[in-house]
């Protein structure tokens, strides 16, 4: 019995020694990082080494493939004129391309540092901290006053960010030229139109005209009035585009403002009624004249494109982000989907004949869009043919104030 026990102990000792030897070989092999130097082994350890070898080969192959992909991505991004900067959740730079060194004066050594250490403009810091990055930020560079860069932040992964920076100096200059042209033309046309309107009113007031002249003068008066309205809209749009948004804001109670617009619109159009749903405590921080213009355009549009005797509803409510939604809902003719994204373009008309009939200038929604942008808001449009449309002015939480109505 003792001899059997001694044999078993000896066998166990030899097996443990052999196992420890195989483990030692495995450790040396893993440390060597050489797939070709597979230890010689048989039995279960031979199978283990084979499985690990195949896994390691796949891992090395995958690393080579990923390295090629990364090198290809770096080569492609190096060819771009736009700066691309990868940021983590703390807005620390994790990677940047070649163009970012030229546009933003960043270096490879800047990786690992917060982006706001190098771009110290307060507007850029506000843009980073904002909840919504749908609207890009345009800033002048510190070195060249006339140069303009467009910053757009896109989120992906786990709160990571992809910052894309474009040089839009040429587009900016063209846009400035367009704005100046519109402003100058509007100003120059105002004088001759004033003269024309003056003579028409004089002819109307001085003496009765022959029947053959009454209709031409009436049409001249209508078209001159329409051109005056157009010039007024162009001037308003030009001011919105050129004036600074840093002018003093005020707290504007919404219900009195919207009620005044609804009452005035109902007076003009006695074929429609407007229902207003707005709490007494809702208020916006902004500029009353601009907001009055934006809401007027939305409500008048709803009236113009609604069927007669239909109700237009204006509904004000808080949204899930704490911001404010102001919805103008009509039961009108509706808008086809392909037109919706272009409705806020200047002079864009879904139906030119219908627009001429209602006397629109094609600038109302463009003005509305600019007013909302100046108030950090946006316009959302939803419509279905023959079922009506809903235009929603969405304002962020920081623009909303709740009044104490007690």
Essential attributes:
13 strands; single chain; 4 domains; 11 helices; 5-stranded antiparallel β-sheet; 19% strand; 50% helix; 5-stranded mixed β-sheet; 406 residues; alpha+beta
Description of the molecule:
By secondary structure, this protein is α+β, with helices and mostly antiparallel strands. It is built from eleven helices and 13 strands. It has four domains: 2-72, no CATH class; 80-167, PAS domain (Beta-Lactamase, 2-Layer Sandwich), CATH 3.30.450; 171-242, Helix Hairpins (Orthogonal Bundle); 250-402, Heat Shock Protein 90 (2-Layer Sandwich). The protein has helices at 2-32, 43-78, 98-103, 122-129, 169-206, 211-242, 254-268, 288-304, 337-340, 352-358, 364-374, and strands at 83-87, 93-96, 137-140, 148-156, 160-167, 250-253, 273-277, 282-286, 311-318, 324-330, 378-384, 388-395, 400-402. Strand 11 (378-384) and strand 12 (388-395) form a beta hairpin. Helix 8 runs antiparallel to helix 11. The longest helix has 38 residues, at 169-206.
């Amino acid at each position: 019995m003792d001899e059997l026990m001694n044999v078993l102990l000896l066998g166990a000792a030899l097996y443990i020694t052999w196992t420890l030897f195989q483990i030692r070989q495995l450790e040396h092999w893993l440390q060597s990082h050489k797939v070709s130097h597979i230890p010689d082994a048989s039995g279960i350890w031979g199978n283990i080494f084979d499985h690990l070898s195949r896994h390691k080969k796949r891992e090395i192959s995958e690393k080579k493939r990923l390295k090629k992909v990364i090198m290809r991505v770096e080569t492609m991004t190096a060819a771009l004129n736009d700066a691309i900067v990868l940021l983590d959740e703390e807005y620390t730079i994790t990677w940047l391309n070649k163009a970012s060194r030229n546009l933003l004066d960043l270096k490879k050594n800047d990786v690992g540092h917060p982006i706001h250490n190098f771009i110290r403009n307060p507007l850029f810091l506000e843009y980073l901290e904002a909840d919504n990055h749908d609207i890009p930020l345009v800033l002048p560079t510190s070195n060249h006053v006339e140069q303009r860069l467009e910053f757009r932040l896109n989120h992906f992964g786990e709160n990571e960010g992809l910052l894309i920076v474009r040089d839009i100096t040429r587009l900016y200059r063209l846009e400035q030229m367009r704005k100046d042209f519109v402003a100058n033309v509007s100003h120059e046309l105002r004088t001759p139109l004033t003269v024309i309107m003056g003579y028409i009113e004089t002819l109307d007031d001085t003496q009765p005209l022959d029947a053959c002249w009454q209709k031409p003068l009436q049409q001249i008066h209508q078209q001159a009035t329409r051109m005056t309205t157009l010039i007024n809209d162009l001037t308003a749009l030009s001011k919105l585009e050129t004036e600074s948004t840093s002018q003093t804001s005020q707290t504007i109670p919404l219900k009195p403002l919207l009620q005044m617009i609804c009452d005035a619109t109902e007076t003009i159009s006695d074929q429609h009624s407007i229902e207003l749903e707005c709490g007494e405590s809702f208020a916006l921080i902004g500029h009353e004249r601009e907001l009055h213009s934006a809401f007027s355009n939305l409500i008048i549009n709803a009236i113009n494109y609604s069927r007669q005797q239909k109700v237009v509803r204006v509904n004000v409510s808080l949204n899930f982000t704490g911001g404010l939604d102001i919805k103008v809902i009509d039961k009108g003719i509706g808008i086809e989907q392909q037109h919706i994204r272009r409705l806020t373009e200047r002079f864009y008309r879904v139906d030119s004949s219908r627009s001429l009939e209602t006397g629109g200038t094609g600038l109302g929604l463009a003005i509305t869009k600019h007013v909302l942008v100046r108030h950090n808001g946006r316009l959302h449009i939803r419509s279905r043919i023959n079922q009506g449309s809903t235009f929603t002015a969405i304002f962020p939480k920081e623009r909303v104030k709740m009044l104490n109505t007690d």
